[in-house]
Design brief:
Elements lengths: L4 H9 L5 E5 L4 H12 L4 E6 L1 H11 L7 E4 L3 H13 L5 E4 L4 H8 L13 E7 L7 E4 L9 H17 L6 E4 L11 H15 L6 E2 L5 H5 L1 H5 L15 E3 L3 H14 L4 E7 L5 E2 L7 H21 L3
Helix pairs in contact: 1-11, 2-11, 4-5
Length: 310
């Protein structure tokens, strides 16, 4: 089981090299991240964008991009379309956002002719390495899907399980989160969490353990869970691997609380439900977050090559 990003990076080094396509690469942090990813043997990058700006930024910051293929395209939208086509055509294994608006980037992802549509629900998966927790935590959805339906949640679980598997976590424990642990018809989130649990017990949701509804403390804190009446009957007692949020508000608030209030936390983020993993980080994310995200994308890309979405 991988409990750190270093272990994921070690896994990547045992895999065939993964090709990376970067849309509008003229961004200092992105260039530093892909340079480090190349040196760590995580990815072999191809950079799409304004070649002069890419080379100038790299020179100013002392970033080594020697030997990287650069496809010159000064129009950002066209650069994104050319970059995503490389993945669509199978010439690259993963796709990364550079210096362009998220809306334009996602437009390229969803392009009907050269994009990465699969018909699956798109979902953002955040992986956290948190001091004091002996495992990686997988959070969805914290940044993309505002109000997932029950069917969306079923697909999100499937995608998160695949990401967890790729990161070395087998049969992960999935906690559909709510404010309470009891099913209340006046709180639809609890009803949906209960249905997901039933589907798991029936074998419709596979390769994981689903137990909900659960409050956040009972999902991740064994001490809190042990003091809860009836805890012995639960299948998750403070040891969840995957946290499934009821909506983007809950997910995003928890995500930002962890990032800004926890010392020493590390994370990585990818978009799933696409033909290949998509590295969708924000401009403010550190180089480390971008490198971690590329490492996760690489192990997921390897798994998708073997299993696809079937």
């Amino acid at each position: 089981m991988s409990a750190t990003f270093e272990e994921i990076i070690k896994m990547v080094k045992t895999l065939p090299p993964k090709k990376l396509s970067v849309a509008v690469a003229q961004d200092g942090r992105v260039l530093e991240a892909v340079s480090k990813a190349r040196d760590l043997k995580i990815a072999v990058p191809t950079l799409f964008g304004n070649e002069k700006m890419i080379r100038d930024i790299a020179a100013e910051r002392g970033i080594n991009i020697d030997g990287m293929e650069i496809v010159n395209e000064e129009d950002d939208e066209q650069a994104a379309l050319k970059a995503v086509r490389m993945v669509h055509d199978g010439d690259a294994d993963m796709y990364m956002k550079g210096e362009l608006p998220t809306k334009m980037f996602l437009k390229s992802v969803l392009n009907k002719e050269v994009g990465l549509r699969t018909g699956k629900t798109l979902s953002h998966v955040c992986i956290f390495e948190i001091p004091g927790i002996d495992r990686l935590l997988f959070l969805s959805d914290v940044a993309f899907l505002p109000y997932p339906t029950l069917e969306d949640k079923e697909q999100i679980i499937d995608m998160d399980v695949r990401v967890a598997n790729a990161c070395g976590v087998n049969n992960p424990k999935v906690a559909p989160l709510a404010a309470v642990e009891t099913v209340n018809p006046k709180m639809p989130v609890t009803v949906e969490a209960d249905q997901l649990t039933k589907w798991n017990l029936e074998g419709r949701i596979k390769n994981c353990v689903v137990d909900g509804p659960l409050s956040l403390d009972l999902a991740i804190d064994p001490t809190a869970a042990a003091h809860k009446p009836g805890a012995e009957s639960r299948r998750i007692i403070g040891d969840a691997d995957i946290l499934l949020f009821p909506d983007i508000h809950a997910g995003n608030l928890v995500y930002k609380a962890i990032v800004h209030l926890t010392q020493g936390v590390r994370n990585g983020n990818i978009l799933m439900g696409t033909k290949a993993p998509v590295v969708l980080t924000s401009r403010s994310d550190t180089v480390e977050v971008k490198v971690n995200s590329l490492a996760v994308a690489a192990v997921v890309a390897e798994q998708l090559k073997k299993t696809g979405w079937d």
